[in-house]
Every structure is written in C-alpha cells, then in structure tokens.
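User: Quick sanity check before I run a bigger batch. Here is a single chain. Can you write out its predicted 3D structure?
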Amino acid sequence: MKTFTLGGVHPEENKFASDRPVEEFPIPKTATVFIHQNLGASPVCQVNKGDTVKVGSLLAKAESFICANIHSPVSGKIINVEEIADSSHFKKTAVVIETETDEWEPYIDRSPNIVKEIKLTKPEIIQRIKDCGIVGLGGACFPTHVKYMLPEGKVAEYLLINAAECEPYITVDHRVMLEKAEECMVGIKALMIASGAKKAKIGIENNKKDAINHLTEVAKQYPDIEVAPLQVKYPQGAEKQLIKSLINREVPDGKLPIEVGAIVNNITTCFAVYEAVQKNKPLIETFLTVTGKKVESPRNFKVRIGTPILDILNTVGIPENTGKLIAGGPMMGKAVSNMNSFAVKGLTSLLLMDEKESKRGDIEPCLRCGKCVCGCPQGLEPFFVSALSINNRYEECESCGVLNCCECGSCSFTCPSNRPVLDYVRLAKNKVMALKKRQS
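Assistant: Done. Predicted structure follows.
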C-alpha cells in the first residue's frame, strides 16, 4: 500500500459511527445562515429583512475571485439580517430565515435518478460549480471552481481524490463512499472534464476495506479512475502527503499542487459537484458525524446549513461530564466556545469529549526528545519554531519553514511534555503571514 515517507503519527481511530448510515436531519424551524462560509473574501448579501425565499434562492453573491455563493437551505420569510456570534463567538453577518414550507427553486432537479451522462462543457462545469457555491468539504472550504481556473501554462495530469478520512472519529466520507458511490464517480468525471486531467486516483486508507471494495467495483465502469488503498497513517489526507502517496511527487515549498500537475479534492466535494453539475443543486447541506467516546449512539447526518448545533446534539444526547465540544476532529478541529451556533458548509463533525479526555496535561520543560521532529510530515523542527514563537521572534520562524506547516497537530500529539507546540507554531505562522501581507 502507498503512503508518504516523511513523518506521520498513529492516533486512535475511534471510528464509532462507521457502520451507521447517513440520516436526513429534520429541517430546522429557523435557519441562521452565515454569509461568509468560505476561505477567502466574503460574498455580498443579496436579500433583506421581510423577503421571501425558497430552497436554493441566492442569499449572497460571490463578487471576488476567491469567494463562494450562499444559498437558502429552507423556504420561508427572512426575519432578520444581523450580526450573530459563530461557534468561536466572533460576530458575523447572518440571514435568519423562518421556515414556512419546503418549496424548492424550480431550476433544481430533485428526482432520485442518477444522471451519468455529462452534457456540460468544461467552462460550463466550472461556472455551474461556482454558481452553486461549492467549496471543499474536507474542512478548508476553499471555493472549488478556483482550483479549475488553471494559471496559463499549467496542465493538470492527475485529479487526486482525498478519501483517506485520516482524522480520528469522523466517518461521513466513509458513509458517502458506501451510499453515494455512483454519484461520486460522476462527480469525479465532471471534475476531470473541468481540469483536463486524463487520470483520477482515489486514495482511501486501508481501515475502510468495505469502501475500497465497493468503489473498486463501481470504478470498473470508469477505466480512467483508479482506487488506491493507502496505509493508515495520519495525516494521509493532507494535500501534499496525498500527492506524495498517490503519484510520488513533491510540491515545492510555497507552491500549489498544480505545480506538479495535480489537483486535489475531497470525496464528499465530488458528491456535491455531482449534485451541482447534474442536478443544478446548490450546496445547502453538509454531512457530519456526531460522536465521542461517551456518546451512546454516534450517528452520521445530512444537515441543512443553518441548523442550530444544539438541535443536532440534543438528538443524539449530550453525555454527562462533557468537557469540550470540537467542530471537526481531535487533531485539526476547533473547540466550540458558543454552542448556540449553527451548521456551516465545512462542518464535518461534532465531537463530544468528557472532562478527563479534554483536559491538557501539565506543561513541562521540553526534553529535546525529537518526537515532534520525527512526527512532522513537513520536515520542520516544531520544538524550535515553538521556542522562537514563545520569544516573539517571528521573523526568524519564516526561515525555519513555518509557512509550510499544515497544522496537522502531529507535534503536539507526540510531545511527552504536554507542550502546546502547535499553538505556538500556528501563532508564528499567522504573524509571519500578516507581516508579509503588510509588506506587500
């Protein structure tokens, strides 16, 4: 099996919901939709209080290059457009919609039939992906259409699909592969047309043998799509590591995957692309796992964007002595400080940790053991960058490669002294990026 060569760690998998089919979560009575749900610029709000919208109506339009449209996940009346705190307690512009019916825009094809024939041309596919507000659903929320607007002189030889789902606990990609394999394949074909790539490779970690077998069987109809089993090693799904694993090419520092002839997309994004290209359906839903060691019945849901997080948690049940709620996985997810927030496009998991599990150990002096260096998939010296960051020596961090950090958390995971290595490395990375932005 293939894998990357530098660094990597093996956290507990804890895939508790891998055998639970995706359930359709009830439509919320009130949907609160944040306008900015993508990496990059914020789209411009197109609606006002008192307007009536349908499912799929445009709420905010992308008017910048790296930006994504926002559509209504419900039908009803807009009761407010205001600043509302997100899961991190930062206030953002949001559209609050009171659900009345479940009326969809007529341009959306809601039939259950799988449409395999792709009739749109390359430019039309890219435009459709943009119009439907598709973003990367692996967590980064980068506007998908931008990846396919290739710089002059660049050629995409390979389309690489990240189906590794290496983050512990999360199982939605696994379920999408099992339940929506045909749709994902058509989505991949659409992206191959958009990119011009002649070959697609789907990288799946070997702890998902049922998904590997199922997609391999479905892929027999698509000779230019290959399913590649990968070794179970975190962060197998990180962009540069996946490229190394699947095509044995290394992306130069500060460069994008297209520099080595590759474009990378998440498998659930491929399903969203299928719905956009073949059904003209905007991205109004997210797939997420609700899980944790003390959760009695971990589950996978398809949730309308704007659904209150507490509604989702209460359906599963919040265990006693819960100490932390994480949006995403334990390695790269972010702690939720405001539980009165709402589902967004990039929400892949709600992880409930009990107090004992969620508490960090007492911080002790660095042992210079080198475990963070051995674990770093980018070949950095996290202990050294962290020390520079603690002493506010941010400019020196750039020469140590801090901008190459993929923030996977392997350094903090391996540290026997419980040092918050990633926290300081991330701080240094943000400081260096801000400095470079001011200088430009």
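The mean pLDDT is 96.

User: Great, the batch can go ahead then.
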